Amino acid sequence: MTSDHQYVSRKHEEDKVIVFEKGDLVFVFNFHWSSSYFDYRVGCLKPGKYKVVLDSDAGLFGGFGRIHHTAEHFTSDCQHDNRPHSFSVYTPSRTCVVYAPMN
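Above: the chain's sequence. Below: its structure in token form.
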């Protein structure tokens, strides 16, 4: 995590969601107390395929295990939040999920 690349692409007050990039990683925080979001669009810098590398909802952390770690998230060239590419995720309430590109 020594990369100089840092970018906050989304701070959505109503959804209570923050999305930011640190290096190649994309962090998605959902602070909403009750709302989970399906097909939530997340902007990113790099195109390709992303996978979950950290999930605060995992049983290991006392969570409910609502995130599928084997899922692959493919980017599209659809710009979103001033980022050149984007992909869709499921973001359960009160979670943080970190995505990394699969190279």
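The chain has a mean pLDDT of 95.
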